[in-house]
Design goal:
With 310 residues, the chain is an alpha/beta fold. The chain is built from 8 helices and 15 strands. Helices cover 24% and strands 36% of the residues. It is elongated, with a radius of gyration of 21 Å.
Length: 310
């Protein structure tokens, strides 16, 4: 599959997530005033740039580092916005704009809310380009988690590395699989306890590179704790949110599965503690206690192997 084919396939999947796009449209219409200048960070194919013009923006700077800017220009022209959308190729942190902007918008989510580099990119754009009194969309992202019984996901993503295909020993890979976030979709019925908010991450000039939070869960039924389901709620504008929370999703983004290994038996009334740390979506650590047993996982445990053995 060619690079362009992969890029187009990914963005086509984002276009099909119409509930998310409608929330962004509502947020832009609520925030953008006629004549405003807007910066679209990580613009993709330029959908938010067109929606910003639709909301009244006089100019939109669409910065994108992976999609050919010609695609953004094609879509802007097809929607009658060619004279207002200015596509710029590259990373927003390495680009200068000819003027300050009134609104910075970015659709850069991940499974657990924080796309790699999102907080830093939004902070840089707000510090260098945003006029005093300007607005960022989204303005904050909250991270939530719940302990889950997920034998299927754990078995497919972690337990698979304890099998012996054709008699081969693949077990050395299991610790790596237990220290990465996996994409999954969980139901409320999978939860061993109600979800809790871990942290609220403000976006903008003062957005923190390090995010940390903790929660305590009271187990409500017997089962096996295989890990934690992670989801996000993004505050786009006043009264407008996007979330992949179980049972109330307004986006097709899947959840993050944070495995623990080995899984642990739990009983009603047991207390499970979880602490999560993230460094701008690039590195994650989740640790805690379930009953009398502790666990400690981090993507840092897996990254050195991948880096050193390329």
């Amino acid at each position: 599959m060619s690079y362009l084919s992969e890029v187009l396939a990914f963005h086509a999947s984002l276009l099909s997530d119409t509930a998310r796009l409608e929330r962004f449209r509502r947020a832009l219409q609520r925030v953008v005033r006629p004549g405003d200048v807007v910066l679209d960070v990580g613009a993709g194919v330029g959908i938010l740039s067109v929606l910003a013009c639709e909301a009244g923006a006089s100019r939109v700077y669409a910065i994108e580092g992976s999609v050919p800017v010609g695609i953004i220009e094609m879509l802007a022209e097809a929607n009658g916005m060619a004279d207002r959308v200015h596509a710029i190729g590259g990373n927003s942190t390495a680009i200068e704009l000819p003027e300050q902007v009134d609104v910075v918008v970015a659709d850069l989510f991940e499974l657990f809310g924080l796309e790699q580099g999102l907080v830093a990119a939004m902070a840089d754009a707000a510090r260098r380009f945003l006029r005093e009194g300007g607005t960022v969309i989204p303005r904050a992202i909250s991270l939530y988690a719940a302990p889950v019984e997920a034998p299927g996901v754990h078995g497919a993503r972690v337990g698979a590395w304890s099998r012996e295909p054709l008699g081969m020993d693949v077990s050395p890979v299991r610790p790596l699989a237990a220290n990465v976030l996996h994409a999954a979709s969980h139901r409320s019925a999978d939860e061993l306890a109600a979800g809790e908010r871990l942290a609220r991450v403000p976006l903008g000039a003062d957005g923190p590179r390090h995010v940390g939070g903790a929660a305590s869960f009271a187990i409500r039924r017997p089962g096996v704790l295989y890990g934690f389901d992670g989801w996000f709620v993004a505050e786009l504008a006043r009264g407008v949110t996007v979330s992949n929370a179980p049972g109330s999703r307004t986006t097709r983004y899947r959840h993050a599965f944070l495995p623990i290994d080995p899984p642990q038996l739990v009983a009603p009334g047991d207390e499970v503690e979880l602490e999560v740390h993230a460094w701008d979506g690039e590195q994650w650590r989740w640790s805690g206690r379930a009953g009398e047993r502790t666990f400690d996982h981090a993507t840092l445990h897996a990254l050195p192997i991948a880096a050193l053995r390329r």
